[in-house]
Amino acid sequence: MTNSAETNPASMISTFEDSSSSPNSTLLLLLKIVEYFSLAGFVGAAFINIFVSELQVAKIYEIILAATWICLFLINRQVFQNYQQADKLSKMKKNAALYTILSSNLIGENNPMDNSVITAARIQALEYAQELIDDYKKTRRDCRSIYYVSQTATIVLSGVTPILVLVDKLEAGVSWLKWLPVICPAIAAIVASIVTSFPFQENWVAANTAVELLEAEQEKFILGVSTLYQYDAMEDAQLSKKAQRAIENFIVQVNTIHLKQVQSASEKKQEQPPDSTPSIEVNPPTKA
């Protein structure tokens, strides 16, 4: 009776929720508080050292607190990464057991071994999909940031160039101003060439599409709202087969979405014509 309760998906959900509030969160909060206190002490010791320079003890405390803050910062960073991974795994386990509970309510009787095996398989499938989603999200964020920053830099540098030419003609007497009308258009041309050579905008849009499709497919699998992912069999003998087929369907759908993105990216790269570098007029420095 106890073993069946322990392997019951409902009890597994409560266990995952209890484990999400593990001592790791308390430890992380405690280390953060100590880190902030050490940083505050370091700043206080630095101010004392500035205004009371003859106080040698303040210099020693400043060095000790600075070293303590650096160590705590590195430790907190690693602990936070471990906590994020554990929290993500706990959520995946809870999501994997969710539809098992729903299907077991429809069946009326639980087969503990089948449910535990099904839940473990669903965890692996969700982890695989989540890795792809995280990778596409990182690609989307990086490409979008590079595209916006480079476009903004090109516009600003191209717009500032005529002003710099005018300032140079006013003979302000500053020698380095003469080179700005050359440097700014050159940087703008380099940035524009990088943007046109690498399809940051296309990669960002494609990654965003992949993220939306994968997240939608993941939610369908978690909740079992599609006929591909439902295994509400009325006989326990058919439950494992239908659950296995649902997991296989999910993996096939995820791979199909991923392969479509990879194939479309490779086709665009093959069809891309030789890149033409935009020409931006570079004005040589005028003689004084």
UniProtKB/TrEMBL annotation:
Source domain of life: Bacteria
Keyword Membrane assigned: yes
Keywords linked to the UniProt accession: Membrane, Transmembrane, Transmembrane helix
A Pfam family reported for this protein in Swiss-Prot or TrEMBL: DUF4231
Residue ranges of the region described as Disordered: 1-23, 263-288
InterPro entries listed in its UniProt record: DUF4231
Membrane-crossing residue ranges in chain numbering: 29-52, 58-75, 146-167, 179-200
Bias kind Polar residues: ranges: 1-18
Record's protein name: DUF4231 domain-containing protein
